[in-house]
Amino acid sequence: MPDSPASPVVRRSRAARPPMLLRCSTDIEGRLTDVGDEWVRFCGRDPATLIAEGWVGLVHRDDLERLSDAIARAASAGRERCELRIRNARGEYRWMRCRLAPVAGAPSEGVRLRLLDVTVRRSAAGTRPDHRPDRAQMAALRVLSERANERAREALVRSTASYAVLEGFIEHAPLGMALLDTQFRFLRVNDTLADMNEEPSAAMLGRTVAEVVPGVWTQVEPFLRTLLATREAQRFEFHTLSGNRNFLCYVFPVEGTDGNLMCIGASVVDITERKRMEDELQRANAVKDEFLGLVSHELRTPLTTIMSNARFLGRYSQLPDEAKELIDDLAEGAQRMRDVIENMLVLARLEHDELEVEPVALGPVVRRAVARRANESHQVHIDLPEDLSPVEASETAIGMVLDNLLSNAMKYSPAGAGIRVHVEGRPDEVVVRVLDRGAGLDAEETERLFDRFYRSQRFRNFIGGAGLGLTVCKRVVEEMGGTIWAAPREGGGSEFGFSVPTSRE
After folding, report:
1. Cβ(409)–Cβ(477) under 8 Å?
2. C-alpha span between 253 and 232 (Å, rounded)
3. Residues with Cβ < 8 Å from 220, sequence gap 6 or more?
4. In a domain, 153, yes or no
5. Which residues contact 254 (CB under 8 A, 6 or more apart)?
6. pLDDT at position 13
7. Are residues 386 and 340 in the same domain?
8. Final residue before a domain boundary, out of 270, 300, 333
9. In percent, how much of the chain has pLDDT > 70?
């Protein structure tokens, strides 16, 4: 039967119908992120299913590698093109010419694809389109699709759990926390920070830092700008004029797996009380320094005069014994008070200044200290090797430590009891021991001896002292990098020793 007159028109209309054009987007790893509505008509599946299953269920298995390479080249080098087979709703593979280009203005976000059906053209050129895949191919595709879906579900569970942990941490943290975008708008604010700002957190969202806290923006802005430029965390303090409050702020970059900056994290702590205490401490230190200066000048000078005159009077042989004893007591009391003052001044200086150390020959320091403390009641013996290495120390500080240890040994030893200063050189340090045959030590009190103002209960009532000498010795020796100790001496008496490192020069 001949064709009706309308048939040629119909055939011409179908031939003139433009081939189908498909559009979609992928991330830089090649995973589908967006598909157009035309995919629903072509594949017979909704966009969410297509994105979940990915390319595996769409592209012919022989063309998957070609597509992956094309996406990678487009993401790194710009525009790219290729031809591949896509399965339609009837299970047939159609040849598509694919044009790929990075996302305009944001190439790191992925690649856009335009696919044009060229099956008819290829057939006309002698290339037959592929037909429905066989059962083995379909089974393999289903297995791959199920595996991909399972991995997607697991990733969703992990991301949901991580988000819940992060939300819980931000909301219940005992400090103010916030997330800002790169325009410094608040994306997330916890209740602690909202309370600091005396404004509901919902009222802060979407607004910039300059809009929410205009009074501190000039203090905060330079650090936020530096973070954007360097991607390095910033730590700084700022204060508010209203309420006169001080805050410590720490801002840090939050980056994605691709290394791009996602947002800015911020933590804020109210340090108003701490600053107030610091100011009070500075004022107290200023008063203390003033007092110590007064002590140094007004007490040390007359004590030196008393000690010198007492020693001068003690040389007169014509004085009766009773007068000599009184003069000796006067000199001893003045010396004890001077030692207390010197120890107080040393402790005060160590609170502010570091001890300056240098190579010191220890032998002359030991001899001078023994000579200063020499008296008729106690004989001091020195064991001092000739080949002693110099130590890294302060000569004045070493002399002061020896003065305190020798004074203690004489104070707690009976008249006539010998005292020995034993010096021992070692490869990395020099050890000094002051040994006596006095009252000895209780093992349980050896650690407390170096506490400030501590005095043994056994001697508190009949041997004077302020309990500062050993405290000063410990601070000074540790400042020089050494150690100090006290121990009962075998056979009776005490051992007080210290070590200081040898000089490396």
Report:
1. no
2. 7
3. 209, 213, 236, 238, 249
4. no
5. 179, 261, 262, 263, 264, 265
6. 43
7. no
8. 270
9. 75
The C-alpha atoms of residue 26 and residue 68 are separated, in whole angstroms, by 11
Measured distance CA(234)–CA(408) in Å, rounded: 53
- Same domain for 456 and 320: no
Q: How many CA atoms lie within 13 A of 347 on its CB side?
A: 20
Judged on CB neighbours under 10 Å (0-12, 13-18, 19+), 15 is exposed
Number of domains in the chain: 4
Give me the percent of the chain exceeding a pLDDT of 90: 13
Residue 323: pLDDT band (50, 70, 90) is confident
Q: Quick one: 369 and 343 in the same domain?
A: no
Residues 345 and 359 grouped into a single domain: no
Q: How far apart are CA 193 and CA 25, in angstroms?
A: 39
Other CB atoms within a 10 A radius of the CB of residue 116 amount to: 16
Q: E strands of 351-409, at which residues? A: 358-360, 380-383, 391-393
pLDDT at position 12: 43
Strand partners, 432: 423, 498
Calpha distance 231→223 (Å, rounded): 11
Residue the block writes with tokens 């996302």 = 103
Diameter of the chain by CA atoms? 164
Residue 333, Cβ density class (10 Å: 0-12 exposed, 13-18 middle, ≥19 buried): middle
For the chain, how far is it from start to end, CA to CA, in angstroms? Answer: 117
Instruction: Strands of 259-361 (E only): list them.
Output: 261-270, 358-360
> 73 and 28, same structural domain?
yes
Which segments of 171-244 are extended strands (E)?
176-180, 186-189, 234-240
User: Tokens at residue 148, please?
Assistant: 């991909």
Q: What is the number of residues in the chain?
A: 505
The helix or strand, by DSSP H or E, that contains position 266, with its residue range, turns out to be strand 261-270
Collapsing DSSP to helix, strand or coil, 58 comes out as coil
Distance CA 448, CA 437 (A): 21
Tokens of 431: 């050890």
> How many CB atoms lie under 10 A from the CB of residue 443?
8
Contact criterion met (CB below 8 Å) for 119 and 86? no
- Tens digits of residue pLDDT in 354-388: 677 888 888 898 998 888 877 767 788 888 888 88
Residue 400's contacts (CB-CB under 8 Å, 6 or more residues apart) are 342, 346, 472, 473, 476
